[in-house]
Amino acid sequence: MTATIYGIVQAIAAKARALTGMRAAPDNVPDNIAAYPFAVTYLMRAEWGGNDATWLTSRRQTYACDIHLSRLPDVGRVLAAYPELPRSLAIAVLSDETLGGACTAVETVRANFQAMGYSGVETVGYHCEIDVVVTEAKT
Length: 139
Prior knowledge:
By secondary structure, the protein is of the alpha+beta class. It has helices at 5-17, 75-81, 85-94; strands at residues 38-50, 55-71, 105-118, 121-137.
């Protein structure tokens, strides 16, 4: 398996795109988006460490999938309209243990509702974190 950060981003973005009601979830971070809800996926943090002369193990990589629901001040309406999006994303990601071969294993998915922003626009949405493990050969 040759895991890449971009490959994992693409795999998570594909899961987000397939969610009921999702209007956009591009593989590449766009300059702006006007259609809600939309999701943006990116690498948040990573740890790398070697366990011997031939293998490089990333103990954990954490990817964020920010689901922007709406511009402010429509908080009540959007919470009522999209209460299951973070749970649906968790089910989609956790049911595909290797994200189609993009990683060694998916560990956990966390989510919280919060104020967000994108391209200078204040939004509300779910900040989801997906922990994955990747073990790959040193090159």
